[in-house]
Amino acid sequence: MAILRKLKEKLKKIIKENMPKKKALDISKESPKPVESKKQMLGIEELAIEKTKFSHPEVARMRRAMPQELPGEYGWDKIILQVRDPWWIHAYWEVRPQTFERLMHELGDEFYRCRRILRVYDVSQVIFNGHNAHKFFDIQINEHTNNWYIDTGGPGRSWCVDFGLLLPNGRFITIVRSNTVQTPLDGPSWITDEEWMIPEDMFARLYGMGFGLGRSSPVGKAWQERVKRALFSGVLASPGMGSSPVKKAKERKFWLVVDCELIVYGATEPDAKVTVQDREIKLRPDGTFTLRFALPDGKQVIPVKAVSSDNLEERTITPVVSRDTKVNSLVKA
Predict the structure, then answer these.
(1) N or C: which end of the chain has fewer CB within 10 A?
(2) Which domains does the chain have, with CATH numbers?
């Protein structure tokens, strides 16, 4: 019994001694796993940082909107007038279907017998009220037309256009009325009062520089003398719009140069306001003024209006000048 008791005590002692070692051994065996997993996590993070170092994410951009075509109609009754050049203007318009339906109910059967018309008014120097135009002319158009180029027949005028219906009895119904535009003159600036005028001798020098009267001119001396004599004797006027001396024909020495200019001059009270073709001009201290115009072929209408300083009186004088140049050549055998 004593021997068995001793054996049990030894066994218990051995077990007690071995238990902590086993736990430590087990812990030492299990400890590498967390370390390895930690290293793996660190490796993944380092790899992610390494990748982001060289990554360049694209900035989000606004999506580009595709251009859209302009609408064919805007849903209003309107006509627009614009200038193309001194002789031509252009009108474009829109009239709603509801407007034509209203006119159809108002006119009844007459609506189907009327014509669609562009009525072009010359409203130069007036504030147009529909009845005080200098003149007008009509252009018939079809129902599918919405724009038109208009030949005005003369530069330097103001124009307004009505789009409407012309009834069989001659009555005209305005549907829309345009803005007023002014066509320019078909020449350079014509105002040459004391601010712009130059002495005649200086003009002659400039004329000579432009047309070969200088010392270094390659033109023959005989031709130079002819032009000089004509210039200073008044036979040859200073050139107007589009004019230039005719070059000598190679086969013959005979030639002719003729041109025209228009000078408009007048006087009024020194403190009056004077406009020529809607443009205000500056008066000399004594109330006089001088204007110099190019005179191309055709009709020139030059309204001159003076308004008193107190705006109580107004006078208008309108010179109308026409030029028709005819050229005849005859070579005798």
Answers:
(1) C
(2) 78-182 (2.60.40.10), 200-323 (no CATH)
